[in-house]
Amino acid sequence: MNNLTKANLPVPAPRSSQPEILAEEIIERLTYRIGKDAKVAKPHDWLTATILVIRDRVIDKWMESTRKVYETGAKRVYYLSLEFLIGRLMRDAVSNLGLMEEITNALSSLGVDIRVIAGLEPDAALGNGGLGRLAACFMESMATVDVPAYGYGIRYVHGLFRQQMADGWQVELPETWLAHGNPWEFERQESAYEIGFGGAVEFVSGHDDQPRYVWKPAERVIAAAFDTPVVGWRAKRVNTLRLWSAQPIDPILLDAFNAGDHIGALRESNKAESLTRVLYPADATPAGQELRLRQEFFFSSASLQDILRRHLQQYDDLTNLADKVAIQLNDTHPAVSVAEMMRLLVDVHGLDFDAAWDITRNTFGYTNHTLLPEALESWPVPLFERLLPRHMQIVYAINAKILVEARKARNFSDAEIRSISLIDENGDRRLRMGNLAFVGSHSINGVSALHTDLMKVTVFADLHKLYPGRINNKTNGITPRRWLMQCNPGLTGLIRETIGEAFLDDAEKLKPLDQFARDSAFQEKFAAVKRANKVQLSNLVASRMGIKLDPDAMFDIQIKRIHEYKRQLLNIIEAIALYDQIRSHPELDWQPRVKLFAGKAAPSYHNAKLIIKLINDVARVINHDPSVRGLLKVVFVPNYNVSLAEVMVPAADLSEQISTAGMEASGTGNMKFGLNGALTIGTLDGANVEMRDNVGEDNIVIFGLKADEVANLRSDGHNPRAVIERSRELAQALSAIASGIFSPDDRGRYASLIDGIYAHDWFMVAADFDAYAAAQREVDTLWAKPSEWYAKTINNTARMGWFSSDRTIRQYAKEIWRAG
Description:
Distance between the termini: 39 Å
Subcellular location: Cytoplasm
Enzyme class: transferase
Cofactor: pyridoxal 5'-phosphate
GO molecular function: glycogen phosphorylase activity; pyridoxal phosphate binding
Shape: globular
Radius of gyration: 27 Å
Strand order of the largest sheet: 5-8-9-2-1-10-11-15-16
Structural class: alpha/beta
CATH superfamily of the largest domain: Glycogen Phosphorylase B
Main location: cytoplasm
Helix content: 40-55%
CATH architecture of the largest domain: 3-Layer(aba) Sandwich
């Protein structure tokens, strides 16, 4: 053993990035870490060897970043999210390290194409849609703008399902992204925590005669940590994504096994492992609801125990927790953290309840992502109390504190008291997680200006009245590294050639591109890049689905989670109306268009799955009708994920952002499309409002009811039947769907879907149809004038820099976290 102490341990020398050195290291990893001779190595072997070489360079920066935080005592940010849709990591890391050219050349010298092996890296199935992708963008931006941060989530074995189509129906299959291991992650055996469920609470008298409560769980599992490094741009900082895996206390019950009960002997293992097997288990059954709550508490408790352990290791004092720690709750999924933090501070660390409440509230921030009351999670009180009895006591204590304050200090009415209560008394009593997150946080932010304004007058109106300073806005953003530089190298190269490299470090430096919007030579180059991206998508669709697309047609794309408020239904109904018009008026100058859809429906969401089936049924009819003459095609591309988005976004000519106004919190797909030179057709919903303000009214196609008009129409009595009868195109399209023209095997398949539009039209499909159809014809007219089209889309790319997640994170850091 040597005599080196922690204070004077040597730091590794910087590693060479010369291609020949990198090639030698790749061969070394291939030989000694994977056990393969280069002569017989397969593409997946080269992929793993390359990742290991890149990872070593990431680790150097990772350790340097960690040391710096301990040395400076900087405040740490902890981002708790049930989803992190990180996608493939190799290209991200290589690009942010500035090694793309060197690694490409090193692999080329070995006869390996980086594009081939990069395509083999599995997508981490850790998220569903915008919520998880936002968390991933935020993690990359926190590292980029030098905010010390940990992301905390669950290491799902299968995560969100893999989507396949069977006769046009969505089929859910397990996503096996971890089947062959994950070379990016590191298991941290020292960071393991017991997580309890059930049991009872015992009262004991403390040494100061103050009452103390001890929770004695009936069940326990181990949360084991797996760390993945997250590299910021130019590797300024490397932060940590820590994911929790559930493991049993006793992996096998030997007595049962030896008695012949070989299956029962593994029940504890199976029960523990089910916690982290699947993202969003179907919650239509009581068992599904319980598993979802178990998941949320499991990762929240493990994360908080880890945060407090790290803080005490450095400071040995919890009274300064809010000065050194900021915890952000990404939606209501980790809201149980408020009660768990109180339990840990009061029961485990012996703090007074009021002192613990001040620390908790000053430490937490809560990001709200929805205005839909049903999407603000709530749990049946009996379920919550059975699983987390001590936490239920704490919730009641918090509720008493809040309600007494509201009644005595603010003179709240009975109706206002019912609104702010943590317990919903309407029907079966339920614990409102949105309210818990609100009262337990010093900051509650919306994710677009419109969304934030609506929060104050809808879901949190009375809580806003009680705490008027807490709600603030932080409009979402996207990382331009992933969503321009990496997914669209052709456009990135063109921009560099035209205005220089300043935009690589600051996306708002894209603005000088504006002056080239009407430059015919630049337009020609811009159009060539777009067409090349469309050829790439066409090749993908041809290889996966056997469908041939015309890259010279307009690519009209809607990719997002399938939900009625996102109105894929409006899109496909308008496609049917367009189909009828093309057949009825072949003499008109129709613009060729390909309508592409992708997205997943929740397994228990019947109408969303029915919409997918309808899209596929309509596609089958339109795509095989010779009278259409190739002027319209409809394609649903299965298994939407980050990697598919990275191909579809740069290929889009038209971006569909058509949610019912007032229902989309923000959207980030709209930002990705705009940055990559697509024209947006959309409602004034979510961040579309701010996009219009940034790109200019002339460079976006806005239609339909505004949020206040939707609310007024619903409250005044909307008569969709009358609206439908006044619109011949809509009436004919709905009649075609309802009568079974697109479903001859089951003519009544879509009757309930169409009946919903006639009966209440809650999502304003009928109300907005004529405006949407007119906007689409406006798009056709513009598409027929290429110079005008490209001027507008170039303006979009030039003016989207404000929507960088770097800007968003700087706002969080300054105004909420006070970090960095």
